Known about the structure:
The protein is an alpha/beta fold. It has helices at about 15-25, 45-60, 85-100, 115-125, 145-150, 175-190, 205-215, 230-240, 255-265, 265-275; strands at about 30-35, 70, 105, 130-135, 155-160, 195-200, 220-225, 245-250.
Amino acid sequence: xxxPIASRFVAGESxxxxxxxxxxxxxxxxxxILNLLGEHYAERGPADDDADAYVDVVxxxxxTDLDACVSVKPSQLGIDVGDDLFRENFRRxxxxxxxxxxxxxxxxxxHETTDVTLxxxxxxxxxxxxxxxxxxxxxLRRTREDLDRIVDVPGKIRLVKGAYDEPESIAxxxxxxxxxxxxxxxxxxxxxxxxxxxxxxxxPKMVSLAAxxxxxxxxxxxxxxxxxVREDEQRRLxxxxxxxxxxxxYGDKWVSYFYRRLRERxxxxxxxxxxxxxx
Length: 279
Ligand code: FAD
């Protein structure tokens, strides 16, 4: 069972607890992107198992009136074993999403997977009529060119700053440069697209910029934030009429995800210490 301190960031271990979380979050007007925890499988078995689990969850979401979708990770669907395995498993989840009317996102991992992930997104988004979304990372120097390539592809694009430590030769490593790239990429998306723009950031400056750009260009967008991070703001934005999606991980592989959340921000670590100390 997940201890209470981790349950701020993780929606339980089972699909049932994840669905309870979706129901409660939807009551606040916030929609939910479910992510089954798991990554970097070195063998086919667990990658196939996670794809099966996503197919089941997509079917179960489709049978409810919940506002929910899923987001998969390439390395959880087998990209470390082989590109073909990733494509095969990703296609299975996307086909299930198409059958049951459930949107399927794909997270972006480190730069060695970028080309294969982009190719798969482009192919499936066209084939399945926009039922697929892709995350792109503003810290990668290549991203502006990638956006040029996919900006007219149906589906959605989630822009994030980028969570992976990448070499300076291919990525902006200074925070100010990443923020500048994020702003430029967001402006490009709002100029070029009418909809399907996901603002994956907790940064108030980027959320405000998205609102300004939407007012200027008339494009529809959604804000995406993580479970356990700025949830008051998620509810406030939703109450204001902004489409807000909360990315909520679930599953039994929660330990490393939880520690990543603690490491990335002092306030999160203090929250955990306070919970342990009971204050
Ligand atoms: P930061 O640059 O970390 O912070 C900027 C400001 O935001 C802070 O000064 C503060 O005002 C506010 N803020 C940030 N965090 C908090 C907090 N915990 N509490 C209060 N205020 C805070 N990365 C990938 O590489 N691939 C992915 O597929 C991917 N998917 C993601 C999906 C979603 C929905 C989200 C939200 C992020 C995803 N990320 C992904 C992570 C992303 O790349 C960033 O590492 C992460 O979001 C931190 O950047 P930021 O824009 O939120 O804000």
